[in-house]
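Below is how a single chain appears once it has passed through the pipeline. First comes the sequence as given, then the structure the pipeline wrote out for it. We keep one example in the README because the format questions we get most often are answered faster by looking than by reading.
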Amino acid sequence: MKKTLLSHITSNQKIKQLETELDYYKSKDTLQENFDYFFNETTDLICIANLDGYFLKINPAFTNTLGYTESELITKKFINYVYSDDIEKTLNEINNLSEGINTINFSNRYLRKDGSKIWLQWISTINLETKIVFAIARDISGIKNTQEKLILSEKLLNESQKMAKIGSWEFDLISNKLYWSDELYNIFEIDKSAKENLAESYRSRLTIEDINHLDQLADRTIKEKISYEVEHPFTLSGNRKKWLLGSGEPVINEAGEVIKIRGVARDITAQKERDAAIKAKEFAELANQAKSDFLANMSHEIRTPLNGIIGFTDLLLKTKLDSDQQVYMSNINQSANLLLDIINDILDFSKIESGKFELSFEPVNLRSLAEQVIDLFKSHALNKKIDLNLMIDPNIPKYVITDSVRLKQVLVNLIGNAVKFTNFGEVLLQIEIVKKNKNQFVPICFSVIDTGIGIQNHNLNKIFQSFVQEDVSTSKKFGGTGLGLSISNQILEKLNSKINVKSVVGEGSNFNFTINFETANSLATKEQISGYVDEKKNNKSNKLSKKFKILIVEDNKINMFLCTKMIHSILPKSTILEAYNGKMALEILENQNVNLILMDIQMPIKNGYETTIEIRNNDKFKNLPIIALTAGIMIGEKEKCIENGMDDFISKPFKLIELQTIINKYI
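Resulting structure:
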């Protein structure tokens, strides 16, 4: 009985042992099945290879991914499927494996059968005893493409920031780390590889005031969770200054806490320099305008009394005077005209300096113009007992196109200087053709030659500078503003010419310039002038016998009296109506019919412009001639008079002949 029981226990144990063994083999089969399933179905590439460079076994993912058959992949060395640029590093990695160094996240490119490339990332290990390599690879082409796009995007961002001179930054409030983009390093001229403390480097370039201001802005951003913008200068090596426009905004986590501040900073140095240049230009223009306004006002204030002095002395010189009175009156008249010349020089210089200087071209008789200039200085030359001569090339065309007033101004200046600085001998104005051209242009040289005191060589350039004469003694002895030659040269510059000078101290000087003139149709011009002169003579005789009614609107009593006397001299039978402001003029016109109005500009109560506009608003006076009498001669003065309804313009001080000419033009 006992033996039977023991036998039964032993049988049970064997059964259990067999069951255990059966479970083990079943589990092993399951594991194998699971492994086979994983090996065959995974998208990862699994292989077994040797150090000779051949795959020993590969899973289906290899063929599916690369497009080759299993036979193709196993019969050739796998290095044949590696992209050429990655072969060297792949061989290095195999060498590392042979030394027992496992591969972790090694990436290389394989060539698919269709010729395309695929990125694979490898993890591998080696059995050093059998020299068998076990490896798993994963397709990371998508990841690589994303990385490349990110790298390209960062590159484009850096390049864009560089072009725009804008850098970006981020400050982590938790780690206290500051990040800068590449362009921010460039803006602050900090070497990125130097591993400097960015916060300290940045703050060291700022003033204490700007540092405190930035700290306040940062604190407010953290507390109030708002953005900020700031503009400040910073200093670089060599004490160079740049300007920065920066902004920052808070980065808030899910708990509503500010964990970072990020922003951008832009180099606005060039913009600041442009703004400064614009402000300087605007200031200069304002200063220039203020100077022009001052000169215009001063011109008006000086010309108004000068008009009385020159006008009355001009009238007195035409009356019966004894010899002493004639001399005294002539000196007063000459002195007043000299003062007028000085004022004109200063105004001309101001016009040229401000770029408002303009030329007016018309047919000009050069011989007649030259003779007029010589006549101006005959008396002065006679008093100094020097010869004043004119020599004109007979081949010079009678009429050329130029600005007669400005050409005359240049010649008057040069001959005036020659007479002034010559105490004996001769002053000669020589005009000659440089060479004959077949076209309508002809180059003509004007030379003013004297036997005067001469000029030192080192002063030849100096005399053309504004407000400068040869030396202090010259200014004391001979006077003058030192503007004449400067203005003359700038006038000639408008005519594409300049003054040349040769001089020997004690022997004399030769000032000359050449202008390429356009010739005019002399016959037509002569006929026009002849016809004008004949018509003028006929009109003059008729006008003297007629009775005209002329309204003078002038607030200055002396100038009013002068105009009255001049008009009675021109038109003896005329009736003069007087108004001392625009309001009085309008009242007179309500009750009187007039033939012509002489209108001052600057007057109390109602000025000349306002009065003229009201007159023109009445259809009755649409064609009534209105002549502006103004002491202002700045550029645009005449145009402004015309725009406001006036017919013409005469500048104070004016002479009898000038007033007569303009009156004859309209009545």
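The mean pLDDT is 82.

See the next section for the split statistics.
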